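Teaching assistant here, posting this on the class forum so everyone can see the example we discussed in section. The complex has two components, and the goal was to see what a joint structure prediction looks like when all of them are supplied at once.
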Amino acid sequence: MFEKYFSERIKNTPSSFIREILKVTQNSEIISFAGGLPNPISFPQEALKVSMNRIADKYGAKIYQYSTTMGLDSLRQYIVDRYKRIWGMNITIDNVIITTGSQQALDLLGKIFINEGDNVMVEKPSYLGLLQSFCMFRANFVQTKLNDDGLDLEDLKNTLKTYKPKAAYLIPNFQNPTGLTYTQENRKKVFDLIKDEDMILIQDDPYGELRFEDGERIPYIGMNESEKNVYLGSFSKIVTPGMRLGYIIANKEIIKMAETAKQASDLHSNIFGQYLISDYLYNNDLDAHIAKIKKLYKSQAAAMVKSMEDNFPKEIKFTHPKGGMFTWVTLKEGSDVLKLFDKAIAKKVAFVPGHPFYVKPDKVNTLRLNYTNADEKTIETGIKRLAEALGEI
Amino acid sequence: MFEKYFSERIKNTPSSFIREILKVTQNSEIISFAGGLPNPISFPQEALKVSMNRIADKYGAKIYQYSTTMGLDSLRQYIVDRYKRIWGMNITIDNVIITTGSQQALDLLGKIFINEGDNVMVEKPSYLGLLQSFCMFRANFVQTKLNDDGLDLEDLKNTLKTYKPKAAYLIPNFQNPTGLTYTQENRKKVFDLIKDEDMILIQDDPYGELRFEDGERIPYIGMNESEKNVYLGSFSKIVTPGMRLGYIIANKEIIKMAETAKQASDLHSNIFGQYLISDYLYNNDLDAHIAKIKKLYKSQAAAMVKSMEDNFPKEIKFTHPKGGMFTWVTLKEGSDVLKLFDKAIAKKVAFVPGHPFYVKPDKVNTLRLNYTNADEKTIETGIKRLAEALGEI
């Protein structure tokens, strides 16, 4: 009955496929590889309980009062110090704004950059949360092919030439949904192609810290070389997602605009959570904590890959993630993943069909599997069920 | 340098006047009546500390994990029960979505209802956070005069006839910025005029619980009589604003759309805060707590009114609030409130000039004063300083 009142924007925005699937799979015997949930045993519960009592005693009413839109200074300073140490970035807290999860960072960037019909380049496939978010601002998405080593350079050239995108959104580390990571070489070539374009480059990086093997981190595309670079980060995958705390790092002029957009969006992110996470970070060894999470996810990823190797038909392809939370499965050419989905649900295993990661999803034969929210034994059982379903399509 | 990249929307959205003023007045000797902060002594700190330890022990990892977009069921149920008890509303939790403060409720409603150029009716003056928020969606605001007893009915008739607004945004109780409350009679007449219009009526009510005198509450406009009514509420003024928790109550179809918009905006509001506030509400007497806040604010409001009566020139008018957090001062016709603002800052007292509450602020001779965040003695000192400043313009 409200059809005539709703905006064009909302009528054109799909409800999140994944969150609809999550509803189906909640409270049932279904083994779900559909979500993107961190393993709850990775949350530093004891340390957080110590921190919450400490901030209550130390700061009193401040942890409950209205606060600044930019976010808590000490938390922003922690981010500055970490990015300076790891990446040598020349930034201050004026380059950092705290957001209500990375999802809000996308909303704010959409608000400040996107006019209706603006071309935005994304990977093919891309993160559905970005597609949903920028859809609100009626962006025109252009998808550029993603290969095992990063963006397809020919496709990138064509995209730049044909569409002159105003912004690009990339996830260079352990991409969602594919689990793929751009090589250092690919990043350099991508930057060579885009550096003279009139284009804002947004690099989202919720998973970069979750690299299974120790060793050198690969710098961001054009890192420390472009004022048009915007970096997103999050505490969701390395401390806790429940507090909804992420951040944007960018040129001060961009951050200032994001601040205005955030005033209009939620005034500020919950200040209790900011005090809590800040206290946790300054009083604990984040790297030691991340090391534990990586060890856990590495074995879970290995269990999933091995189980797929052992049970899937040979013609089924899948990525071998070196970090992050997902693997991406490609069925035989012409297979219908929605048919597989129905068979899989009947066998009590769930995944995300590839559709929501494409701008124009017609014949889709891909799917995303998450391995972080189930133990190795459950992963094996679930993959066996999925293999059985594969045999029936 | 980024001018060419920014969206039209953000270039047309003013940064919040008030939050800019708050920056000026922070960490100084200025007595500030500019903010809208609850008195921090009203936060139930001890009870919240008990609750946070209880939820940590009781729910473990759940208070840190991703959660549902609609919000925590127990918190939504509390809201349902309260509105049923107080107002006899026939609602279930499907009519309620938790938002990241009331400000996000405005953002979500803008997202789902407003196309560029849609006419939206607001009070004159109106809440600046709404003006800022809907400005993002390029609404065309129409301001309808607000009198001591509610909306000006002739002006309302003209507005409806001339502009046929798609939505109206009203604050019927202890309005921000004026402190005015619509009488029961005015509400009935307003509803008679609007009930057959194709218009969504949004009633924002952050202050309704803060009625200084006990006695009968006045029902919302068209309460329980219109499916086109949307109600907003918040825990910011009665428990704590720092958690950023508010809610929308509306027809299920509207809530469903708001859910999609929220998925794209921040996935969900911080779940720790939702468990915390829910636990607090079920284990404490909210009405007893609100009674304490009301007693405090009543005496602070009385101190401000008395001090203005004693010190202001007779030609200065101001509202006598019966609840809420603000009083609204009108200077002599032709006075320039910005001139007063400069004089006041020089005398170390701050307020919000009327400008941000108007859609077209030219010659403004009004200002907003907040009385909830200073003790009676400080209020007296601040009003005396303001009276001195008044003598100099």
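For the discussion questions: Residues 17 and 356 of chain A are 6 Å apart (CA to CA). The domain at 8-44+288-390 of chain A is CATH 3.90.1150.10 (Aspartate Aminotransferase, domain 1). Think about how each of these relates to the inputs above.
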